[in-house]
Amino acid sequence: FSKHATMRLNSRNIKLNNEQMIKLEKGIEKAEIKGINDSLILIDQIALVVNVKNRTVVTAMDSNQTEDRIFTNIDGAVII
C-alpha cells in the first residue's frame, strides 16, 4: 500500500480483513495475467486502484465515497 492509499484507508475508516486481502492478491494476479498496468479492483463494496507492476494499492474508497463513480488512470478493472 502506498503512503497515499494508507492515508485514504485510515481517513475513510476502511479496513481490509484477511479474506479481502486474499481476494486483492488474486485480483492483482488476474490483472497481471491480462496485461493490465493500472487496475480498478472492486472487492465487497471497496474500490482499490492498483499499480499492477509494482503490486501497490494507490488509493482506496468504499461505495459511500465513490460520489461520481469515475475512475481515471486505469486500463482495466477486476471485479471480485
- Strands across the major sheet, in which order? 3-2-1-4
Mean pLDDT figure = 93
Structural class: alpha+beta
Largest sheet: 4 strands, mixed
Explain what this protein looks like in three dimensions:
This protein is α+β, with helices and mostly antiparallel strands. Helices cover about 30% and strands about 30% of the residues. It has helices at about 5-10, 20-35, and strands at about 40-45, 45-50, 55-60, 75-80. It has a four-stranded mixed β-sheet. Strand 2 (about 45-50) and strand 3 form a beta hairpin.
Which features does this protein show?
80 residues; globular; alpha+beta; four-stranded mixed sheet
What's the SSE blueprint?
Layout: H1 3-11, H2 18-33, E1 38-43, E2 46-51, E3 56-62, E4 76-79
Parallel strand pairs: 1-4
Antiparallel strand pairs: 1-2, 2-3
Question: Summarize this, please?
Answer:
The chain is of the alpha+beta class. It is built from 2 helices and 4 strands.
